[in-house]
Amino acid sequence: MENKSDSQLWEEVEAFFVENFDTDKHPQIDTILFLIGVQELGSGQQKYTKDDKLNILHIAVCRLLEPFGYFKFSHYDDDGYPHFDEVEQLPELKPNEQQILMKKAIIQYFMDEELFK
User: Is residue 93 helix, strand or coil?
Assistant: First the structure.
């Protein structure tokens, strides 16, 4: 695993979603974030409102950036939603820098959750 480049690991992330969720060959980051958020929420496949979808994306971003020191898990609310406290403010990033950070965070999530083959 340690010998693989980020681009090779990212290809494995994409392959995971293609195989397990029937996504496009190169799923968009938002699609991956949504599916990670659903996994973290533990709610499974169902109809979600627009607000639910935004909350799910927020859960994914907080969970993914937690190992980088930006967020810390706080608690679950009465509806089972995880809440995070902001530990460190994210720096202002250009869109391409945001994408690079999220890809690194998703790769780290896959390592932490032992999702790589």
Answer: coil
Confirm if 64 and 102 have CB atoms less than 8 A apart: yes
2 contact partners, CB below 8 Å, separation of at least 6: none
pLDDT tens series, the chain, 117 aa: 568 999 999 999 999 999 998 888 999 999 999 999 999 998 877 899 999 999 999 999 999 999 999 999 999 999 889 999 999 999 999 999 999 999 999 999 999 999 998
**Strand 82-86 with 71-76, pairing:** antiparallel
CA distances to 6, 24, 85, 101 from 66, rounded to whole Å, are 19, 27, 10, 12
Q: What is the pTM of this model?
A: 0.91
Range list of H helices, 25-82: 29-41, 50-65
Give me the residue spans of the domains in the chain: 6-112
